Amino acid sequence: MSSRPSFKYREFNIPNHGLCRVIQDKNEKIGFEEVANTQNAYYVSRDYFTSNLNDDVITAAPAANDEVILTNRIKRHVEKRKHTLNILEELVINGHKATSEITYELLKQQLLKLYGETETIWAHSTVCEWWREYKKTKNIAKSVGQDPVVRKRISERQEELIFKHLETVFLTKDTFSDSVSEAHSSYSKDEYFENSDEEPVSYSTFIRRRNEILDVIKVFATGSDAEKRRKAYRYKGKMKVERVLERVEQDASPYNLSLLDDNGKTTEGVQLFAAVDCKSNYPMGVYVKFGKGESSEDYQRLFREIITGTCPTLNANGIPYCIVGDNSGGARATNTREVYHNSKVKYHTLSPHTPWGKGHIEGLFNIWEKNFFRNFSHVYTDTKGNKVQVTGIPGYLPDSEDYRVHKTQKDRAVMKKSEFLRCLNIYLSQYINTTQPELGGRTPQQVWNEGIAEQNPPKLTVNDLNYAFMLSSTSVDRTLYETGTVYFDNAFYQHEELKDLHNELSTKGHKEIIVNVYHSRWDVRTIKVVGQNPTGQGTVVIYPERITHLEMDSEIPFGTDKPVKVEKPYFPPTETDAPLDKKKKEKKNKAEETKEEDFQKRKVEAFDLDNQIVPSLSAMIQASNAIFNTSVPVNSTANFFMKRRNKRKEHNIENDLQSKLFDEHENPPTESDLNKWGYDEDIKT
Q1: How far apart are CA 212 and CA 459, in angstroms?
Q2: Would you say residue 194 has pLDDT above 80?
Q3: Sign (positive or negative) of CA dihedral 575, 580, 583, 585
Q4: What biological process terms from GO does the record include (predicted)?
Q5: Is 373:396 a contact under the CB 8 Å cutoff?
Q6: What are phi and psi of 348, to 5 degrees?
Q7: What b/e string do you get for 418-427 counting C-beta neighbours within 10 Å, with b at 16 or more?
Q8: 42, 57 Cβ separation under 8 angstroms
Q9: Contacts (Cβ under 8 Å, ≥6 apart) of 677
């Protein structure tokens, strides 16, 4: 079964519409637009279109490649192919097979013989593909194929605008979503059309361009390496950046580097957060974190570097039009997105595992890893104060090497943090003043200065964008006083509008006025106070300034002022609190002293068990009989001794004593010995 012909990109003369170009041929529908006015586009069924074409109602225009337009791309390909194809054609005429290995070897010999070693020898598969395309047309220029730029119905500049506004929505699944319509609306209102005769493209064309980008993503996910290279080259050509600050790419890169802090402790790696301008390749912000992980605070610090340029060696700063980054947790955090929203900056999140979407920052990290961490020649001061000449950063271990055969982080740490930052600033100064081929032999500093001089953007300071960092998560409730002051962060903030707000709310019966206070963690010289509108509709936003004894020329971080320690004054006691003439204690007389001494003595004797004499058993029994008038034998046979825990055989007292005496003495004791030891008569017998 033969496949049906495709009418896509072909031109036809259609009644009532003139010369039209087919822009869609699928799903049994033919979509075409007028060449003279691309805003007029129509859909017809394929059966209707083919029937009218067969009846000569619709006539076909000459094919676009009947007359080859020698664009720059076609000229380049002709120069590459002409020597190879001309020699190969002669070999085929002489009877050689075009695709055989023998013919390919003869081709290489002829190329080296005629053009020398400077001639490029292309691969066998490439030569076969070129010959297959050449056989169809018998023209090298036609075999290259139609240049994609030729069949564009709009200018290249407008094509760039389309892709610039599509960049924030090209991953959206729903083609008719609000985000796509908003992108088309912003594209239609671009300042380019105010000074140009061109008109914006239609909404359908805008969606079609978006689908082309989705095809690029699909190829990168499932296509071959050759398809990926072709798509990437075409996509990169369309995504041109014409102005500085138009597109800024940011990312974080960890490095296995061990450093020492001021206390001599080893750091757990180093992480660089950087942002680069895609027009000039200028690193707008660099933030060094000694540790691991990416947080919202880290990306907020990086954004402050972008808009302020506080790095001593980098002087490029400003508010970018769009920031492109990955889907890391710190960049996607609510606080980070709120900062971008407050600054009117568009943030575009790339799809996971698509580093080619931010090739500028990825390439910058590769350059730094090679030229700075490995091959940067410099002199640094070690921990002993000696000057050491080294190549590369001491303590850095590339990820490609095996960790098990090298020193640990503690053994590798020989450079201090301060020395590392000093070397990094020296390298950054060299980088921005080094010429780059992709910049036309100019340096990033030169391209940046030319762009700034042409665009003349407003010069901003961190004070101008301090409100962007006053996040909703920092909201606290505070009392508004009648003097127009608010107490926050151990200091008072005052504004005349706050005083007027208090007076207006007080006249309406508000006894205690509570307002919401927002602050920036980096600078609390100014805060954001949101109060109730006296009209009852909406809120009022006021920015009071801090009343403090600190210098207001520099930033005041949150928590700088400590609460004032209030010391209570000491007042000596008065006669009312404690009488000054106190009654003296009277001495006790001798009778009372003697009585107290006897009491203490009896108390000690009562608890002195060693001095207590236990009466004998017979005397106790006799005393008991006298009280209760009972007759009990005086000599009792009851055993009052506690039983041993180990079940030994019980012995009488005489055997135990005699065995003890014989064990302790070699000879049996005499009667004099027993008297000397104080034994009773019963024991002697």
Answers
A1: 38
A2: no
A3: positive
A4: DNA integration
A5: yes
A6: -110, 120
A7: ebbeebbeeb
A8: no
A9: 669
C-alpha distances in Å from residue 121, one per residue of 6, 73, 516: 36, 20, 73
Between residues 424 and 603, the one the model is more confident about: 424
Nearest by Cα to 384 from 429, 349, 414: 414
Tell me the CA distances in angstroms from 345 to 201, 250, 319, 678, one per residue in order: 25, 13, 7, 108
41 Cβ contact partners less than 8 Å away, ≥ 6 residues apart: 23, 31, 32, 33, 34, 202, 204, 205
Lowest mean pLDDT among 208-222, 279-293, 499-513: 208-222
For the chain, helix, strand, coil in percent to 5 are 40, 15, 45
Cα-Cα-Cα-Cα dihedral sign, residues 189, 195, 197, 198: negative
Q: Are 523 and 555 in contact (CB under 8 A)?
A: yes
202 phi and psi, to 5 degrees?
A: -75, 170
Single out the residue of 285, 194, 244 nearest to residue 455, CA to CA: 244
What count of residues does the chain have? 685
Tokens representing 385 are 């104060």
Give the mean pLDDT of 328-348: 87
Rounded CA-CA distance 60/53 in Å is 8
Q: How confident is the model at residue 443 (pLDDT cuts 50, 70, 90)?
A: very high
Q: Which of 238, 240, 154 is nearest to 202 (CA)?
A: 154
CB 308 within 8 A of CB 319: no
Find out whether 472 and 520 touch, Cβ atoms under 8 Å. Answer: no
For the cut 70, the answer to whether the pLDDT of residue 190 exceeds it is: yes
The helix or strand, by DSSP H or E, that contains position 18, with its residue range, turns out to be: strand 18-26
Contact 77, 144 (CB under 8 A): yes
Percent of the chain with pLDDT over 70: 71
Tens digits of residue pLDDT in 610-654: 444 445 555 655 665 565 554 445 454 545 444 455 444 444 555
pTM of the predicted model over 0.85? no
- Those residues with Cβ within 8 angstroms of residue 551's Cβ, 6 or more apart along the chain or in another chain: none
Interatomic CA distance for residues 80 and 77, integer angstroms: 5
Tokens of 474: 């920092």
Task: Annotate 344-374 with b (16+ C-beta within 10 A) or e (fewer).
Answer: ebbbbbbeeeeeebbebbbebbeebbeebbe
| pLDDT at site 4 | 60
Task: Give the type of residue at 201.
Answer: V
Token pair in block for residue 103? 């013919």
Identify the CA nearest to 167 among candidates 353, 355, 347.
347
**What contacts 126, CB < 8 A, 6 or more positions away?**
none
Q: What is d(CA 685, CA 680) in angstroms, rounded to the nearest whole number?
A: 9
Burial 13-45 (b: 16+ CB within 10 A, else e): ebeebeebbbbbbeeeebbbbbeeebeebeeee
What is the mean predicted confidence (pLDDT) over 388-416?
75
* pLDDT tens per residue, range 524-582: 888 999 988 888 888 888 999 888 766 667 778 888 776 656 566 666 666 555 555 55
Sequence-distant (≥ 6) Cβ neighbours of residue 432 within 8 angstroms: 282, 283, 313, 314, 443, 444, 445
